Structure formats: C-alpha cells, structure tokens
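Write out this protein's structure.
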Amino acid sequence: MTAHLGLHVEALRAGYGETVVLDGVSFDLAPGGTLAVLGRNGVGKTTLCATIMGHATLHGGSIGFDGANLAKLPPYRRARLGIGFVPQEREIFRSLTVEENLLVAARPGRWNRERVYDFFPSLAERRRNRGNALSGGEQQMLAIARALMGNPSLLLMDEPLEGLAPVIVDVVLKGLDRLKREDDLALLLVEQHARIALEFAERAIVLDRGRIVHAGESNALLARPEGLASLMGVSRS
C-alpha cells in the first residue's frame, strides 16, 4: 500500500460478521484537515468509525494512517498511533470521577489535565464528581476531553451533538471550533445536523446504503440546499 500522511481509506468493504455495511468507500483526510460524514440513519456512518478503530469486520479494501496499514492492528494499537475516538454512546467510566476518567486515558503530549480543564471549564468544576453524576452534556464534554488526553493527531467524533440541549450544543461547538483553530488535529465529524457539520468541516462525504454518493467541498453543498436535501433523503415540500 502506498504511504499516505493522514487517513487514507480505499475501496473499503466492512460490516459486522458476515454482514457487509460499507461497500467500496474511499476517501482521504489530510493532517490537520476536517471532514464531515453525512447521511440518513443506518447508511453506515457509525460503521465507518468502528471500522477505522478496529471494532468492525474488514471484508476488503484498506485503511492507512500516516503510512501504517491498520488492517490487522487491534484498537489499542490504532489509538497509540494517534487516532482518538469519541463514540456515539460516550462510554465514559461512570464509576470513576471526571479526573480519573482523564488520567486513565492520559498519554504524553500537548494535552494534559490543565489544558483540558481550560478547554472545558465546567469539567474542572466537576473534577471530583463521578461520571454517573454528570449531565448528558457534561458526559459528552468528558468523552471529548478523554479522547484529547490520548494526544491524538486524528479525532473521530460520532454524533457528538446527539441528544444535547441547544445551550450545550453551543458549548460543544465552540469547543470544537476552538480545537480546529488552535490544534494541528485532523477531525472527522459524523453528524445528523448536516448544516452544522458543513459549517464546521472543510470537506464532506455523503453516505447512502454503504456507498459514497457525494464528496466535495462543504461550501458547495451549503450553497445548494435543495441538492443537500436530496442527498440526505429529506423532502423540502
């Protein structure tokens, strides 16, 4: 496989067991770049993240990251290579405190407790609270902060705004915008809110039935709301 910097996905076929969910998916995400992954429920967005992280069955194609072939690497090896993951279910340790959640994930690098607490001040205020005592929004901030404590160069975020109150959505989005501005981090955002995702990311792909049906600059989709609605399977009538 030719070495590529950043994330390189080529002709990816993947799913769970014998079931194929993704079929022929190819794209690149350069270091420091931002990519939105859009599509209706059930089209393969979460499976894409799971496959990159090693939690799904690879049936064909390849996944490369900074020149390394990820195909046979277990999830923990992928994390050590610099891939962070914020899962849709958050999966924080509910019996541990905020600070313990962060320390469990800590690896040497630019992100440490102090920087994370500066990034999400509400976590600093709740550092001694257990995960099961946090609100949904605080749990989401903790999931993002925990991923950052691993000092990744690529961060995958699966529906980070799902189920959050509008005021918390604003807080999380401001944090992600700050992350984009201040950190040399590649960001892959899976999101149901297409406009929010397109305003955040430079480029976008749209999945349908496990295949990419559109790939290009986010601004082009924002300028064509009818085309975006059609790709997302949304009626504008």
